[in-house]
Write a structure and sequence with these properties.
alpha/beta; 2 domains; globular; 293 residues; Spore Coat Polysaccharide Biosynthesis Protein SpsA, Chain A; 10 helices; single chain
C-alpha cells in the first residue's frame, strides 16, 4: 500500500528513548499510516530488543556496525518508498498532528526540498533548529564567542534567535535531529554525504539542496521534543573532536576557487577551537562535580 510519508529513526544506544520515539511517531495518524524503519548502528544496550518487545511489528535494519548518522539515514531512506521521508534522532518524541502539518507544507511548496519542525527542549524551551548558513567571519566569531557567551550578537545571528519560533519561514538549513525531506530532491543531490560520521551532515545536505535549486523551510505547526545529546553524552570529548572534523570537511567543500586560500587558516582555527571547546567542557564538568571531602 502506498503511504504519504516514511520515518527513519537512526538509533545508537538510546535505551528506552528509542521505544518512546517510535511510539510517538506511530501514534500520529494525522497523515495516515507511516512507513517506519529503525536503523540501528550496532547498539549493545538492549534498546532494539526493548523496542521489538514493546512494538512487535517495528521494522529494524541492522547496520554493519556504527556507520554514522548519514550512512544510517541513507540505509533507511533506501528501504522506504514514500515521497516524503523524515529522519529522526531516537531521543525525541513527536506531537500528534505534526505529520499532517509537515506534509501540508510540502504540498503548498513544490520547490521545498527539506523542512524542519519546531524543536523543543524537555523543559519546554525552544531549541534554535533553523539557522543561517554562516559566512567565514560569522562562523569564526560565533565559534569563539559562543563557547562562553551564547547570546553574543554573532551567535544570535547564526542561530536566528531574533526570529519568532511560532512563525513559519524559509531558512538556510535545519537540524537533522528531525527533518522531513522530499525524496526527489534527495535523489537529485545524491542523498546524505556518508563521509560525515556525525555532525554538520545536516548543514551540508541543506546547502547542497539549496545549490540545486530547492528551498529549505521551518514549520512550527509540527513539534517534537528532543533530549539533547542522549547518544553522545557518553563520549563528549570524542564527539567534540568529531564535530570539528566534520566542520573541516564542510569547509573544504565550501571554500573552493579563490576562497581555497583560506583553508590553511580554517584548519588552524578549527584545531584551536576544538581545544578550547574541550577545555570549556572540562571546566564545566569540574564545576558540576560534587566536592570531594
Amino acid at each position: 500500500m502506498s503511504r504519504a510519508w516514511a520515518a527513519v529513526v537512526v538509533n545508537y544506544r538510546a535505551a528506552s528513548l528509542l521505544t518512546d520515539c517510535v511510539r510517538s511517531i506511530l501514534a500520529d495518524s494525522s497523515a495516515g499510516e507511516v512507513e517506519l524503519v529503525v536503523v540501528d548502528n550496532g547498539s549493545s544496550d538492549g534498546s532494539v530488543e526493548a523496542l521489538q518487545s514493546a512494538v512487535p511489528g517495528a521494522r529494524v535494519i541492522t547496520a554493519p556496525g556504527n556507520v554514522g548518522y548519514a550512512r544510517a539515514a541513507n540505509l533507511g531512506i533506501a528501504a522506504t518508498r514514500a515521497p516524503i521521508v523524515a529522519v529522526f534522532n531516537p531521543d525525541l518524541t513527536m506531537e500528534p498532528g505534526t505529520a499532517k502539518a509537515m506534509l501540508a507544507r510540502f504540498d503548498e511548496e513544490p520547490g521545498l526540498g527539506a523542512c524542519g519542525p519546531r524543536i523543543r527542549n524537555v523543559d519546554g524551551s525552544d531549541y534554535p533548529s533553523a539557522r543561517r548558513s554562516p559566512s567565514v567571519p560569522l562562523a569564526v566569531a560565533h565559534g569563539l564567542l559562543g563557547l562562553w557567551w551564547p547570546t553574543n550578537p554573532f551567535t544570535a545571528r547564526y542561530r536566528e534567535l531574533d526570529a519568532d519560533p511560532a512563525q513559519p519561514r524559509s531558512v538556510d538549513w535545519v537540524s537533522g535531529a528531525a527533518v522531513w525531506l522530499r525524496r526527489g530532491a534527495l535523489d537529485t543531490v545524491g542523498g546524505w554525504d556518508e563521509r560525515y560520521f556525525m555532525y554538520v551532515e545536516d548543514l551540508d545536505l541543506c546547502w547542497r539542496l539549496r545549490r540545486a535549486g530547492f528551498d529549505v523551510g521551518y514549520e512550527p505547526a509540527g513539534v517534537v521534543t528532543h533530549v539533547q545529546g542522549a547518544s553522545t553524552a557518553r563520549s563528549p570529548y570524542r564527539m567534540l573532536v568529531q564535530h570539528h572534523r566534520s566542520a573541516w570537511r564542510f569547509a573544504r567543500r565550501r571554500l573552493t576557487g579563490a576562497a581555497a586560500v583560506l583553508l590553511p587558516f580554517a584548519a588552524l582555527y578549527l584545531t584551536a577551537r576544538c581545544l578550547l571547546a574541550i577545555a570549556e567542557h572540562a571546566w564545566r564538568a569540574s564545576r558540576a562535580s560534587p566536592a570531594r571531602g
